[in-house]
Amino acid sequence: MKYFTLGKQKLSKYCLGTWSLGGQLKNNLSYGNINEVKSQKLLRYAYSKGINFFDTANVYGSAEKRLGHVFRNIREKVFIANKVGCVSFKKKLNFSKAIIKKQLNQSMKNLNTKYLDLVQLYDPDPNDKNLRECVNYLHKKKKDGIIRFIGISLRQPSDYIELRKLYNFDSVQCNFNVLDQRVLDNKTLKLLKKDKIKIFARTILNFGIFTNEFVNNNITFKKNDHRYKWNIKQVLLWKEHIKKLKQVSSRPIEDTCYRFCNSFNISSLIFGSNSKKQINIAVKNNNKKLNKKELSQIDNIYKVFSKNMMLKPKIPIKQ
Q1: CATH class of domain segment(s) 9-305
Q2: Do 203 and 180 touch, CB atoms closer than 8 A?
Q3: What digits encode the pLDDT tens for the residues 125-160?
Q4: Whole-prediction pTM value?
Q5: Rounded distance between C-alpha atoms, residue 47 and residue 45, angstroms
Q6: How far is the first Cα of the chain from the last one, in angstroms, to the nearest whole number?
Q7: Which residues have a Cβ under 8 Å from the Cβ of 284 and sit 6 or more positions away?
């Protein structure tokens, strides 16, 4: 496993996202139910494969509690990134001081810890009037030693252009994959490089759609899976273009997707998993990249795909 440094701590290049491991709670969007025992086994397995970086949120079912239980005796050996500002997927984002204070305390209780490694603002609108108060409060907690680092999970990469004026963030998290290369926009990328900020890429496999299993089979999602709410035309559009990766290489689609992201100056790749097999696929690719010809071919696929308008899911997330 490759590692990078944040502060004085070495973090694994690959970060295990835990939305798929949180299970289903009432009024919660998820990947469906997964029992606690299986989740805990997968967290321990990921750690045994060299992964010490985990991403979570208070709205990811029981993910925080499961992380807190598994790593309670080796807390200092793992790095957990969590988020604030989202009370529920069905409610408007709230970055008021009162909500942030409540969420920090609850996350520390869930994670069974006295400190938080990285607190990220959850998809903030740059025009949200509560952000200044939120960031000031988080900064105070950082000075008090309760929070070690402060970052942003972006709705879209271009939001960073305005949000960077708010605070000197330690990290940004955003979508990045073979069919979503918005973070490579010259203006955004130039500012990210100038600020020397850590970039964490998510949706590497686009919710599990960019995989051989999905492309080669007629998979349908259950109603308790958030992917069920995606517009079927959008899913088929993804499927149509991701199949073209077979023209780039005969290797499995997920291998090409991981290697594509590895080919850029990205600090960490956040991937989801609900099986040991999926963890193994990610780990085996953590140090591999694509060649220039492959990158050029993927760029051509992306240019054609990006001309299509995104058909957003019918998910009741309020902004």
Answers
A1: alpha beta
A2: yes
A3: 999 999 999 999 999 999 999 999 999 999 999 999
A4: 0.93
A5: 5
A6: 37
A7: none
* Other Cβ atoms within 10 Å of 38 Cβ, number: 13
Looking up tokens 């960490």 gives 268
